[in-house]
Design goal:
alpha/beta, 13 helices, OB fold (Dihydrolipoamide Acetyltransferase, E2P), 14 strands, 5-stranded mixed β-barrel, Rossmann fold
């Protein structure tokens, strides 16, 4: 048997797989892992379940239309072809379409774009432009064959017939719808003849309404210099255009009602205001007539000359009172001035200094006198103390012939403090000497200095 090369075996297996029509178009449900995006745009990943895994690739030509960003761990539904990658000799899933499993790719794309635009601030309330109360010209961007334009025209004509409505026909679903709607919004702004734009269509599935979720349409509405009313689908339908528009209407008919006021309601309001004004004017006229009648009956109208003369007399009296009051006020102010002047003279610095100088001189004399008395008293006390000290001084006694005996630094006062051979110091009035005790006699000495037995 002839041996095959690896390439021949791989090529044979590849032909077998390609001949199986079931593997040309297959749907696979699984979980993404090992997801990588190549710099050229291709996506490489593994799709797996609890028992097996399969190498997969989605080329840029297919993945550029994805409405969400694949991530590891995401449950997906894939459509594609199973074939063999010859260089590695392994089968591989070539993905052509990918949808989130159980969520729906349109819903994922809706939430992604909605969050992105909200983060950019396109839904902010301060960006909303006011809708004109009395528009003259309305641009309606919708299909020319649908019921939307008929409902809007009927409603506008019924509410305010003099308002012009211009249809800018567009495709409202399908691949060409986003570009068609975007172009119509730009044209309405460039025309510079419209006051407000209504963009919308009738109800439908999310796929049918999807044109109004496209980013190019949403950004065109956001960039519009004219206020935009979004009227897409029924009341329960929401598109991203509703969030970015200046006003969201639940239905196209409601959009027309929001765009123009009801002329009948306005006429009723005008009639009501007219009646109020008439009643107010009648009440004011009646009030003024009553005032006129009162004035006609007043004294001023009956006798104007006497009235003027009376006012002249009252004026003279007022002038006299004013003069007296001014004189009294001047006199009072003069008295206040004189009093203040006298107080100022009494409290001027020179007067205060002279008074303080006199007080200082009196205090100085009193201080000198007190010091003199204190000095004399202290001198008397000093002389008395000196006399006492003189009487008590040992030197006075020593002048009479006495001396003092010291044992070291101790003054000896009794013979009992002596002992034989004790060295003592003798202090006389004119000097000192040192001696040694040779004999001790305890016999007393009388007042005359004689020894007593």
């Amino acid at each position: 048997m002839e041996a095959w090369s690896v390439s021949e075996a791989t090529r044979y297996i590849k032909r077998l797989i390609e001949s199986d029509t079931q593997l040309i178009e297959v749907w696979i449900r699984g979980e993404l892992s090992n997801f990588k995006r190549h710099s050229r745009g291709h996506m490489y990943f593994t799709v797996k379940d609890e028992n097996a895994r399969m190498q997969s690739v989605m080329f840029a030509g297919y993945n550029q239309h994805l409405r969400f960003l694949p991530e590891n761990g995401m449950k997906v539904l894939l459509r594609g072809e199973i074939n063999v990658y010859e260089p590695y000799g392994q089968y591989q899933f070539y993905v052509k379409e990918m949808q989130p499993d159980g969520i729906g790719s349109l819903h994922v794309a809706f939430e992604r774009l909605k969050q992105q635009l909200e983060d950019e601030g396109l839904f902010a309330q301060e960006r909303k432009k006011p809708i004109p109360v009395y528009p003259n010209h309305i641009a309606v961007i919708t299909s020319q064959t649908g019921a939307v334009i008929r409902d809007i025209l009927t409603t506008v004509k019924r509410r305010m017939p003099n308002v012009r409505v211009t249809l800018l026909p567009v495709a409202v679903q399908g691949d060409f719808a986003p570009a068609s709607i975007e172009r119509a919004i730009l044209q309405a702004n460039e025309a510079a003849i419209f006051d407000v734009i209504i963009v919308g269509r009738g109800g439908g599935s999310i796929e049918e309404l999807w044109a109004f979720n496209e980013e190019r349409v949403v950004r065109a509405i956001s960039a519009s210099t004219l206020p935009v009313i979004s009227a897409v689908g029924h009341e329960t339908d929401y598109t991203i255009s509703d969030f970015v528009a200046d006003l969201r209407a639940p239905t196209p008919t409601a959009a027309a009602e929001m765009a123009v006021p009801d002329i009948r309601e306005k006429l009723n309001q005008v009639h009501t205001y007219q009646q109020r004004i008439v009643r107010a004017m009648e009440q004011l006229a009646e009030k003024k007539r009553a005032q006129l009648q009162y004035l006609k009956r007043s004294y001023a109208f009956r006798s104007p000359k006497q009235m003027v003369e009376q006012k002249e007399q009252q004026l003279d009296q007022a002038v006299e009172r004013l003069k007296r009051e001014m004189q009294r006020s001047v006199k009072e102010k003069q008295m206040m001035y004189d009093t203040t002047h006298q107080r100022l003279l009494r409290n001027q610095p020179a007067t205060l200094v002279n008074a303080q100088k006199k007080d200082l001189e009196r205090l100085d004399q009193r201080l000198i006198h007190a010091l003199e008395l204190q000095r004399n008293e202290k001198q008397k006390q000093l002389h008395s103390l000196l006399a006492q000290l003189e009487l008590l001084s040992p030197l006075k006694i020593m002048n009479r012939g006495y001396s003092l005996v010291y044992k070291e630094d101790k003054l000896l006062k009794s013979v009992d403090e002596l002992e034989e051979n004790l060295e003592v110091r003798l202090l006389f009035k004119d000097g000192r000497a040192t001696g040694v005790i040779k004999d001790i006699n305890h016999e007393g000495v009388d007042q005359g200095g004689e020894t007593t037995e």
